[in-house]
Amino acid sequence: MADLTQLQTTCIQVRRDIVRMVHAVSSGHPGGSLGCTEFLVALYNEVMNHDPKKFTMDGIGEDLFFLSNGHISPVFYSVLARCGYFPVEELKTFRKINSRLQGHPTTHDNLPGVRIASGSLGQGMSVAIGAALTKKLNKDNSIVYSLHGDGELQEGQIWEAAIYAAANKVDNYIATIDYNGRQIDGNVEDVLSLGNLAAKFEAFGWQVIETEEGNNMAAVLEGFAKAKSFIGKGKPIVNIMKTEMGAGVDFMMGTHKWHGSAPNDEQLQKALDQLVGNEVDY
Amino acid sequence: MKKYTYTEKKDTRSGFGAGLQQLGQTNPNVVALCADLIGSLKMDAFKAENPDRFFQVGIAEANMIGIAAGLTIGGKIPFTGTFANFSTGRVYDQIRQSVAYSGKNVKICASHAGLTLGEDGATHQILEDIGLMKMLPHMCVINPCDYNQTKAATIAIADHHGPVYLRFGRPTVPNFTPADQKFEIGKAILLNEGTDVTILATGHLVWKAIEAGEKLAEQGISVEIINIHTIKPLDNEAILKSVAKTKCVVTAEEHQMNGGLGDSVAQLLSRNTPTPQEFVAVNDSFGESGTPDQLMTKYGLDTVNIIEAVNKVMKRK
Do residue B60 and residue A164 have CB atoms under 8 angstroms apart? Predict the structure, then answer.
């Protein structure tokens, strides 16, 4: 049984890391990172079978995760470090010269926990499907997970992958959509509406799960449990998870403006004042 | 001039198919993907013998490259197959991010490269693919010259860890290299020793270089001919050694002049030993419909063009 309090405390710490990391280099993407905090904290601390101390690229016998919307690297790095993939201190190097923590994640510098470069959008679903196919060939019953932005679904490759996964019954794979409704230029609805997203995935032959409260840890865990219950049932699974961009910091919510902007000194302090727990900042 | 003979003409793509079939029987980690061109790529045998290790992805090349990158995670060695145009230009960013930058062990196998695709015309005749691929850090670029060499190259790249671009074509061409050859990535093959000029040829132009060498020998010109089957990494040592002797060079390729083998050679020579060089390549142009032979003639990639280039470059010494 999950320790909700512990997971929520971790979320506060991760959110502190996110705002401090982007503030330190005056760049990066805090909005989507804050919105996906519950998802990634739950995934790495509760849901996945994995061993942070023994990272291998092949991940034989382990569940795998692919971050397709690579710009939310701050939350990814914080969660990886906080569960033991690499020293938390290394978060200080985010986006700095000679760092393994590149602006967008990469395997290039052998950062434990990262299995594919992402940043150019729309590619991670194909990669996750490939990894899921190898799991099947290897008779490895682990699960492959991926995360995608909603704006990212405007990329055509996603739908190539969606057709493939359903047609080939890639049923050891759970894709999650960070459905926050916002992208750089504004609301997804205004930039390029996705229409009825659940109906689209259903029409493509996927098992659709919807998580209404993606920033509520209990709801996120429930969503994972529901998604996992469809593993091995002949369909790829998608979890459309509603989140709030900027969640946890009041002035970053309700707008797309913090998609790719960093807080200044005063804004950082204001954000940290809202993120109080048993913090152990790097 | 050393005499080269052949008993039959065969297409290089069939060499790929045969090599892939052999890999299917010898290497359980090899998997193959195709984007609706199984017959054209000669992947039928591998598919028939290894249905579990073959993935038909449909007309969705971007997805194919991404899936291939993912398949490597867990130890598979994916070979993707489609036309050269759809293997490179169409999916450049997928190769760049998910394969090359991510350091994935994917073999991008590309048929119908260049003008010799023929009647389908310029939409399908990519002449920029060597350039696109060689610019990617750590990408290995191979363009073998005949059936036997393409088969050997296909088998060899399975043992090379890292991304590879393997380029071959549609038409039948003289199959003159040994059936039992061992393919060494990055190791140029000296086909004829000579002293007056070096011809560095790749792919379908290798046989034309041999034909040119025979005609030039009749004129009393001693031609050194080297088969550059690997454009990256380039065999710098073999090229510099030859040019030190002949003092001039002709490069020959079924590709744009910009970005091709000739560019790589010019860069090598200008940094080490500036040398007169002539380029047999397509000069800043798209192709068009026609038979392969007609196109090679019209776009200046024929035996006669190599001879002209040799005569020109020797005057520049």
Answer: yes
